[in-house]
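Subject: Sanity check before I submit

Could someone independently write out the structure tokens for this chain? I want to compare against mine line by line before I put it in a report. The sequence has 70 residues.
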Amino acid sequence: MTPKTVCQRNITAPLQALPQAEFEGRTLYFCTQFCLEAFNADPERFYQAHSQPKNRKDCDKYHNAPTKGA
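---
Independent answer below. Compare away.
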């Protein structure tokens, strides 16, 4: 099974290179440091919002948005 981030993205980078946190006895992986910081601010809320397939579209919008200075 391919490891995935909380928002269900396939992980292709080495796991140790990704931001991560422990939650309910499991290691969770995040695609960005920003997402890890948002998780740390309210773990339960972040996990519930990002781990549901129906919310993936909102996460995709964030990751596909232009970055500042781009």
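---
OP: Matches mine. For the report I'm noting this point. Residues 65-70 have pLDDT under 50 and may be disordered.
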